[in-house]
Amino acid sequence: MITHMDRDKLFALLDAFAVELPSWGFADTGTRFGKFLQPAAASTIEEKIADAGTVHQYTGCCPRVAVHVLWDFSMGVDATATADLAAKHGIRIGAVNPNFFEDQVYKFGSVCNPDESVREHAHRHMMDSIAIAKAVKSDTISLWFADGTNYPGQDEIASRKGRMHGALRQWHDALAPGMKMLIEYKPFDPAFYHTDITDWGMAYVFAKDAGRKAKVLVDTGHHLPGQNIEHIVAFLIDEEMLGGFHFNDRKYADDDLTFGSIDPYAAFRTFCEIRNAAEAGKDVSGIAYMVDQSHNLKPKVEAMIQTVVMAQELYAKACLVDRGKLRDAQARTNTIDAEECLKSAFFTDVKALLAEWRKGKSLEADPLGAYRVSGYEARVAREREAVRAARGGTSSTSYA
To answer: What is the pLDDT of residue 394?
Structure first.
């Protein structure tokens, strides 16, 4: 029951909460050891967009789909056609993700590679990606680098840092007006000795140096065990350097599990810091909420609906924290009362509230149940299996 927040205010906050889906999350995925195929998995950009539009149809809060340049666009294909296709499915193209890790020339890195010809290859790809972003009217370029070294002495670390600085400055200046560049970090994998952007502090330095259009992207799975992610989030918001998230969950490292499946309280605490900042007058409207998951075992669309519903629930709970009581408890240094303010909101059942919000949007109260009744999964499985058989193969979309 809402006792300290107007229902209309909560629903307005839910109206503004949008989750961007990843095109690659609808494709066949796997681990470094192999890939598990699903009949209904998408294997073309057309199928991925259709799936993303379906998730938005049942959840009402996923108006954008992120694309991965090498996986979703072919040479000679008009990118605007992809944007037009997305519009037909009731969504639009979100973040454009260049690929700096899959090409064979990136064996020893992309922009940090000591080989100038490889760095130039990466630069051309980035310019192509910016052109695609302009064509599809995307306002975001999302960057993740696999650059690093596997052995001591393999390369000079400070020199690699300088190469990264130079590339990011140049790319920042090539962005169109209104476009932003998000810089992601990762502690390890695939570079096991050192990664060139290994944590939020390094991403912050690179973004700050690149220019005002560059911000930090926090992937919730890209942290070492025990890392306090909500502390990072609060710090970056206060510095006006938090650009967005890649939502997922993990047990050990970058497991890309369904958001909130392992530790929903941690995700809730992250949302709490965002709402704390908003209540304190900080502008959090530009934070991008994006998904980056690998559904190896779960059906793709179902897993994505499950993720979005979980994100909505945890965000709603964070909105319901009684911040008047919380501030009072903090002022009195009453640790128990302060913690209970968070726990009370976290354990609030918000399903009925979200069902009411969906009713106001002419949506089904239970998105996952409604999707299952629709028969979409079985229908597209038959259609896609037939198409793959006709072209003599199976789905082979890559994921890294």
So the answer is: 58
Domain total in the chain: 1
Task: Tokens for 304, please give them.
Answer: 């994505």
Cα of first residue to Cα of last residue in the chain, in angstroms, is: 43
Decide: helix, strand or coil at residue 285. coil
Report the CATH number that the domain containing residue 44 is assigned in CATH: 3.20.20.150
- Residue 244 forms part of a structural domain: yes
Q: What is the pLDDT of residue 397?
A: 44
Is 51 within the bounds of a domain?
Answer: yes
Q: Is the four-CA dihedral 215, 303, 264, 313 of positive or negative sign?
A: positive
Which phi and psi (to 5°) does residue 118 adopt? -70, -40
Q: Does the bond joining 39 to the residue before it have cis omega, within 30 degrees of 0? A: no
**Domain assignment present for 11:** no
Coil vs helix vs strand at 257: strand
Nearest to 308 by CA among 12, 1, 14: 14
Q: DSSP E strands: which ranges in the chain?
A: 19-22, 29-31, 34-36, 64-68, 92-97, 140-143, 148-149, 180-184, 194-195, 214-219, 242-247, 288-291
**Cα 69 to Cα 86: distance, rounded to the nearest angstrom:** 15
| Domain housing 169 | 17-390
User: Does position 393 have pLDDT exceeding 90, yes or no?
Assistant: no
What three-state secondary structure class fits 27?
A: strand
CB 206 within 8 A of CB 165: yes
CB 23, CB 325: distance < 8 Å: no
Helix (H, G, I), strand (E, B) or coil at 165: helix
pTM of the predicted model, to two decimals? 0.95
Q: Give per-residue pLDDT as tens, 2-29.
A: 666 789 999 999 999 999 999 999 999 9
In a domain, 70, yes or no: yes
What are the backbone angles phi and psi of residue 344, rounded to the nearest 5°?
A: -60, -45
For 236-294, what is each residue's pLDDT tens digit?
Answer: 999 999 999 999 999 999 999 999 999 999 999 999 999 999 999 999 999 999 999 98
Q: How far apart are the C-alpha atoms of 321 and 94, rounded to whole Å?
A: 30
What is the C-alpha to C-alpha distance for residues 192 and 67, in angstroms, rounded to an integer?
Answer: 27
Nearest to 52 by CA among 97, 82, 92, 98: 92
CA 58 to chain CA centroid, Å, is: 20
